[in-house]
């Protein structure tokens, strides 16, 4: 989908949820296109990289038991049989045993960066983003962040809080709130943006992403 049209303008909120200005930008400043296929590919990549891949079952060479032939090939009147560790016998190894594997792979760096900006733009286009004047959290206190979420109508919803750099006070204040994730703005990615329904990001972090002077 080609991005174009009118400028996006959203109100800037303070920690009490009151309006204290507006933040405006052209959609093309973030991304000139939104490609659903690229977003899908990026999410699949992040999910694949989260897989542990440590599953394992024993092959016939890994189970205990003799390699001796159970009985002679002919003359018994029974069906021929090999070793006791054969997969067709109880206690034998698996015919196609599972082995640990690494699911990790990476899309091209520019594709990953493009997907992140597409996901960010989609939050604003779907009215799922809140721009915050700044994180005024002087000490770890869940009540402060919970009050903000309630004031902006995001209580009980999945929310991604983007901070300017690592903000321990915000992280400690929000870690006990169900459905809330905190990430520095520099660590935003397509998976985290799309996984959480809503986004709260500061004016300073938006200016950094758009390449504007503070």
The rounded Rg comes to: 27 Å
SS element count, helices: 6
Q: Helix fraction?
A: 25-40%
Quickly give the structural class: alpha/beta
Could you give a short account of the major beta sheet?
6 strands, mixed
What's the pLDDT, averaged over the residues? 93
Q: In angstroms, what separates the terminal alpha carbons?
A: 31 Å
Strands of the biggest beta sheet: in what spatial order?
2-1-3-6-4-5
Pattern of helices and strands: EEHHEHEHEHEH
Q: How would you sum up this structure, described in words?
A:
The protein is α/β, with parallel strands linked by helices. Helices cover 29% and strands 15% of the residues. The protein is built from six helices and six strands. It has a six-stranded mixed β-sheet with strand order 2-1-3-6-4-5. β4, α4 and β5 form a beta-alpha-beta unit. α3 packs across α4. The longest helix has 17 residues. It is elongated and about 95 Å long. It starts with 7 loop residues before the first strand and ends with a helix. 22% of the residues are buried. The mean pLDDT is 93.
Helix-strand layout with pairing:
Layout: E1 8-13, E2 19-25, H1 36-50, H2 109-125, E3 129-132, H3 142-151, E4 159-163, H4 168-174, E5 180-184, H5 190-195, E6 198-202, H6 203-210
Parallel strand pairs: 1-3, 3-6, 4-5, 4-6
Antiparallel strand pairs: 1-2
List key phrases describing it.
single chain; 214 residues; alpha/beta; 6-stranded mixed sheet; 6 helices; 15% strand; elongated
């Amino acid at each position: 989908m080609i991005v174009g049209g009118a400028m996006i303008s959203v109100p800037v909120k303070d920690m009490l949820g009151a309006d204290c200005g507006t933040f405006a930008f052209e959609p093309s400043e973030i991304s000139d296109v939104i490609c659903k296929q690229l977003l899908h590919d990026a999410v699949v990549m992040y999910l694949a990289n989260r897989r542990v891949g440590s599953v394992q079952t024993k092959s016939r060479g890994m189970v205990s038991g003799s390699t001796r032939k159970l009985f002679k090939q002919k003359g018994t009147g029974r069906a021929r049989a090999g070793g006791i560790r054969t997969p067709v016998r109880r206690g034998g190894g698996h015919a196609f045993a599972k082995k640990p594997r690494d699911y990790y792979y990476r899309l091209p760096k520019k594709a990953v960066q493009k997907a992140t900006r597409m996901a960010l733009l989609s939050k604003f286009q779907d009215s799922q983003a809140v721009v915050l004047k700044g994180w005024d959290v002087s000490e770890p206190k869940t009540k402060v962040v919970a009050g903000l979420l309630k004031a902006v109508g995001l209580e009980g919803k999945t929310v991604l809080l983007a901070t300017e750099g690592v903000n321990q006070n915000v992280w400690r204040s929000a870690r006990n709130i169900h459905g809330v994730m905190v990430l520095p703005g520099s660590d935003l990615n397509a998976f985290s943006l799309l996984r959480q329904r809503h986004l709260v990001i500061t004016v300073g972090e938006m200016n950094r992403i758009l390449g504007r002077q503070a």
